[in-house]
Amino acid sequence: MLFKKLPIFVILLFANICVILGERDLPAYYPRCYRDDPDLNQCLLNATEQVRPFLQKGVPELNVPPISPFYVPEVNLQLGTDSISYKSSLTNVTVTGLDTYKFTKFDFDVKKLLFTGAVTMGKINIKGNYSIKGKILTVPIEGKGQLDTTVVSSNGSLVQQAKLVTRRGKTYLESEKTKIHIDVGEVQSKMDGLFDGNEVLAKAADNVIKENLQEIVEEVKPAVEEVFTQIMEGILFKSVYRIPYEKLYPLHNQKS
Predict the structure, then answer these.
(1) Largest CA distance in the chain
(2) Count of alpha carbons within 13 Å of 116, Cβ hemisphere only?
(3) What is residue 61's DSSP assignment?
(4) In the record, which residues are listed under signal peptide (predicted)?
(5) Quick one: which of 92, 170, 180, 238 is 20 to 30 A from 245 by CA?
(6) What pLDDT, in 10s, does the model give residues 150-169?
(7) Which superfamily does CATH assign the domain made up of 8-254 to?
(8) Which distant-in-sequence residues (6+ apart) come within 8 Å of 58 by Cβ?
(9) CA distance 109 to 234
(10) Is this model's pTM higher than 0.85 or not?
(11) What does the domain layout of the chain look like in residue ranges?
């Protein structure tokens, strides 16, 4: 059989989070970085630390929800490969630990409108309701119940190509393409309710998952990366990019 990898993802988020209409302004308490500053990249790197307490609580001016805990109503994943094939749905998902981020790089090439970043994450916990049906290696897997997954550590990188667009006479940044790459360290996961409580089948599946967890993580990683990309674009970037470019990254001579 020809090897196939077809990750399909759907994220359903509340409309008042994902869709933000009208012009916005950067909150007064947010750090400003000027696009003609020779130390722009250092300013941006510093800003990632300065905005942490605001992101933890959420930024109502931009309709950005709190990032820890971060709530996702539903995530649907489907994957088909030679070794792993499944359809899975997660609902009422709560993610804690996203505020443990530490950017080691956050650069903005103004001429190319290209953003690049590198980040390390501390412990992240994911809880929610799950349903799954499929096959992992040679073992069928099916069930629904409670999911509790902890990612002990991870590293990530971000590349975003932006472009300038004009709306109602003002210039805005807009994402043209975003790619997020994730390298996951140790993962601990527990799924209650596999095989409708059949302990023998559940234990067999659990053993296979534990023994091959890193391989499984690598297989599903592309789908997870797409999910994180959609979350970033749907919430953070769409929110920030409602701010006119001249306000988001002004020139020094525009400073009030």
Answers:
(1) 70
(2) 4
(3) G
(4) 1-22
(5) 180
(6) 989 899 999 999 999 999 99
(7) TULIP domain (3.15.10.30)
(8) 64, 65, 66, 67
(9) 23
(10) no
(11) 8-254
